[in-house]
């Protein structure tokens, strides 16, 4: 299971017993979604979940930093367009790929996307199950869910867990996923996203990038090196696969400048990439 570390964590900051202090802003989504207004109660709840996750699972940098509380999908320029379409046509389908705890799934629900339209998927159900405790919706969450690797052709092929969606998905979202994959796996992942999209469907997402592109830390199972694309190399890959109207933009949000200081130092200058690509 990918969430079980086969190697020591590459993050020098992944060892403290306590995470950083939670701000009120960190708790905005959780408070809106659960209806819990007592933020101190939520702080304690998050801390308990974080400790349980840390004891059992691979702790990605974004988990260590409690970034799973903050929805990422609203930060993408394409989201308003996808949201408007999904709200106006309940037949349109959306995937949250690499959903982890599922903060973006919950954000879409809060924003009015019909739960029937959403499929949340990840290589493992481990974080997702903790997400049901975190968001306190184990008995009410009505989105579709499917678990397996998007790099595996069988996952999206006929008869596979997502085979029934092949060629039918209007929007595929992948927040902060590509940078945990090897170069070969990014290619396979992108091919399978292309396949599952309907004609005219859009893949949009974010990932850590590097200028120049290159290998980075080891993947969680230790088998390969993760690959960080540059805007140019990711655009070329997506166009090669068949996507059109590909747009890849690099930026340097505050969280990234600190990552350049304390993440494993290899490859070029790290940036955050936001991409949009149409089938
Ligand atoms: C860095 S986390 C980002 C999670 C979340 N989307 C976010 O924005 O916070 C990367 C996620 O990708 C998932 N993942 C890794 N490899 C995957 C694969 N081959 N197929 C699907 N999901 C994968 C991980 O399990 C993890 O949940």
UniProtKB/TrEMBL annotation:
<comment type="pathway">
    <text>Secondary metabolite biosynthesis.</text>
</comment>
<keyword id="KW-0808">Transferase</keyword>
<dbReference type="InterPro" id="IPR051654">
    <property type="entry name" value="Meroterpenoid_MTases"/>
</dbReference>
<protein>
    <recommendedName>
        <fullName>Methyltransferase domain-containing protein</fullName>
    </recommendedName>
</protein>
<comment type="similarity">
    <text>Belongs to the class I-like SAM-binding methyltransferase superfamily.</text>
</comment>
<keyword id="KW-0949">S-adenosyl-L-methionine</keyword>
<dbReference type="GO" id="GO:0016740">
    <property type="term" value="F:transferase activity"/>
</dbReference>
<feature type="region of interest" description="Disordered">
    <location>
        <begin position="1"/>
        <end position="20"/>
    </location>
</feature>
<dbReference type="InterPro" id="IPR029063">
    <property type="entry name" value="SAM-dependent_MTases_sf"/>
</dbReference>
